[in-house]
Design goal:
The protein is mainly β. It has three helices and 15 strands.
């Protein structure tokens, strides 16, 4: 991979507080850490976006393998984006698929650099005391589950749920509707960034708002601005 690939990584989501790991020993150390502590990653190609498990890097072959839960042929375009999140930090790197070992395993070239960014780009406002601020998630069975919102911004949110209602995992995408003040409903596409234990055998999931129309984002921004002056 060349230097131009390294500098093309940051997207609109990750232009805040970006730090680069570019020394080979730092990249390798980070990949060992990611395999041990994070494990699950998101693989983006030109064709699709998939969840995978990250293996330890192999210095001898200058590669790192990823594993899929089902048969997954390598993409037509060899360049892919690998992204993952841990402890409030987000990571991305570009690499190439050097080999498809079998239907559930790809061999990737060790990247020349890994981008890391941390922190939120804006404050979130607590909404757990507002009973009319909820979110309805669409489950696989077509049923909707309505949950209380813990906090909210134009970029993300957190919500409280019971594992008996549904199971959420990091990098999972969710189709949802925000139910806000004055009966306003905004459809959104979410990506789960974390899920942690909470009181009374419940869990809190933090999500990035990956998809929302410009008009809905403007409406959401106005509602949040109103929260800030209450």
């Amino acid at each position: 991979m060349n230097q131009s690939m390294q500098t093309s990584i940051p997207s609109a989501e990750m232009t805040h507080s970006v730090m680069w790991l570019s020394l080979r020993e730092d990249v390798l150390a980070h990949l060992f850490y990611a395999a041990a502590e994070i494990g699950e990653v998101r693989i983006d190609s030109a064709d699709e976006s998939l969840n995978a498990s990250l293996a330890f890097p192999n210095e001898a072959t200058d590669s790192v393998d990823v594993f899929f839960s089902q048969q997954t042929p390598p993409p037509a375009s060899a360049i892919i984006r690998v992204r993952y999140h841990h402890d409030g930090n987000s990571y991305e790197f570009l690499t190439v698929v050097s080999q498809g070992i079998d239907g559930r395993r790809w061999r990737l070239a060790i990247p020349t650099a890994v981008a890391r960014w941390s922190g939120r780009r804006e404050d979130r406002y607590r909404t757990d005391h507002l009973k009319n601020f909820t979110i309805t998630l669409e489950r696989d069975d077509g049923e909707g589950v309505t949950l209380p919102l813990q906090d909210l911004s134009t970029q993300g949110l957190s919500m409280c749920y019971s594992p008996l209602q549904m199971q959420l995992s990091v990098n999972q995408e969710l189709i949802a509707t925000l139910n806000l003040s004055d009966g306003i409903q905004l459809p959104v596409l979410l990506e789960v960034r974390y899920s942690r234990s909470a009181e009374n055998l419940r869990r809190v999931a933090g999500c990035y708002i990956r998809g929302i129309s410009p008009s809905s984002r403007a409406t959401l921004g106005q509602i949040i601005a109103d929260l800030g002056v209450r």
